[in-house]
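Appendix C reproduces, verbatim, an entry submitted by the partner laboratory led by Prof. M.T., so that reviewers can inspect both the input and the predicted structure.
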Amino acid sequence: MINDRKAAIIGCGFVGAASAFALMESGMFSEMALVDSNREKAEGEALDISHGLPFAKPMKIYAGDYADLADAQLIVVTAGANQKPGETRLDLVKKNVAIFRSVIPQITFYNRDAILLIVANPVDILTYAAVKISGLPASRVFGSGTVLDTARLKSLLGEHLKVDSRSVHTFIIGEHGDSEFPAWSCTNVSGVPLWDFCEMRGHHEHEQAMEELAESVKNSAYQIIEKKGATYYGIAMSVRRICEAIVRDEKSILPVSSMQTGEYGITDVALSMPVIVGRDGIEGRVPLRLSDEEVEKLKKSAETLKGIIGEI
């Protein structure tokens, strides 16, 4: 029987450990299993986090193996090779698909009822691989996608317009990577179209400013990797946000990476578009009124990913 308050994390590197900490802090779960090919690493992370439990909510956190996944409601997969400085997310693909060919069958051997949240990069390719390898419904296998990229864009737009970023409504869509782009035609600030709000705040060179913001979002991960070697806090908070939507059945609209089924003529590829996320995983899709130019960018992003899929 599935335990609604149990999560598991596969992979205890920077992202896995930070995600485990973020989920512990959230108080959503009463049990969390950490699984890693390096058992001692998982044990160390579990011990380190558990020592802070007197300052948080009660939780059983421990290093486990794949058998411990049997009753988990949520399984977060961060296992994979690290992205190195100068390496794109897509450079990782062959190494990490090989890892998934080992990891995913072990997960599904013990649990075919959980939701799989894929976080390892390149997340779109690995989400596609996880769906195909697992044989699970695509509604229950999806990736963190551009949830973090969208948060970065909201943050930068908030700074640019000098407003609370939570009042900015926008999405980064497509690949979580170099071909991603903002859906500017759907962007607004508390219902006011973006360009109108920009002019209200004294900004008139829209295209140049928005292009610079989009490039900044796209290059954020590379800049962080260059400066500190890896990104993990931001994505850990994104994992927490997605898990909240599932555990609390929030029906939140989030741009996770999911299999496309014909929208805009795109099929058989996973990429980020806004969907309704709740207890059953992806519960519905949210159509965006994209411009013709944006539709072409989305199709190009899909073709980029399909090209990589074809190689593997």
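The domain at 147-311 is CATH 3.90.110.10 (L-2-Hydroxyisocaproate Dehydrogenase; Chain A, domain 2). Additional entries are available on request from the coordinating office.
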